[in-house]
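Hey, I was hoping to borrow your eyes for a little while. For a while now I've been wondering how a particular protein folds. The fold is given in discrete form, as structure tokens running alongside the sequence. Could you read through the record and tell me how the tokens relate to the sequence? Take your time with it, there's no hurry, and the full record follows here:
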Amino acid sequence: MDFTEIILTVDVRNADTASDVACMAARGGIYVEDYSHLEQEAHDIAHIDLIDEDLLQKDRSKAVIHLYVSPEDNPAETDAYLRERLTALNIPFSLSQAVCRNEDWENNWKAYFKPMPIGERLFIRPVWVDEYDAGDRAVLHIEPGVSFGTGTHETTRLCLQTIEKHMDGCKTFLDVGCGSGILSVAALLLGAERAEAVDIDPLAVKMARLNGELNGFHEPRYTVLEGNLTDKVHGRYDVVAANIVADAILLLSKDIRQFLNPGGLYITSGIIDLREREILDAFSSLGFEVLERYEEGGWLCFVTGVK
């Protein structure tokens, strides 16, 4: 089984945050090249003063993070996850890929993305799969492209399962940082009368619109906006959902209340368990009450409402 190496380069000042994002994205492990304190670390750790000349020539201003991703974990989705999360965190970056053997990873991962049930009522069907049995479930046809969100990652699966629990009486739905648009399309399939999605990435916006069309949803019932939340979104919603990293949730949550209808719910996912206390403290300070908590594989999803 061939692994894909994804090579992420960031300014060294952003190395810790970018490494946290990388750890969330790669089950196959990461390693970080950071030579900003090379001499001191060589002395303190290895107790040596003589350092190879090639190491001394390394760029001290950059950190290079290497991720190793198996085909089952969808390298294309991992790439998209990194792009979306780092952009949301305003971290400049560059990404490149290398395949352990000379194969086309962008397409090979599709062999491992199979049709699958999620929750009690949804069935996710990749558009390249023609034979499937969804039973009486609502079928969500999806072409993720390079946008995050297929349902295979715990964060997306948790969020979809949680959204399903709260669609009774939900007329309007907002998907913040929509990626592939999977959350908002699912909300429509589960009974929402209208959904909006917003993302700062134009490619994500394009894919979210495409996925809406694949499932028969168009404007005005389904609207996808490109830009920041507060700049582009207007009105109030019964449910607002955000499947993004903890830092982006901390930032966006300051503005969410103005988009919630009275009694509305704010559903957040993409939060690693190590950040739970920080997130809970932020919710409390912003006037949100945690109503439900779900966990899978070290990832958390919260349902909150205004106190």
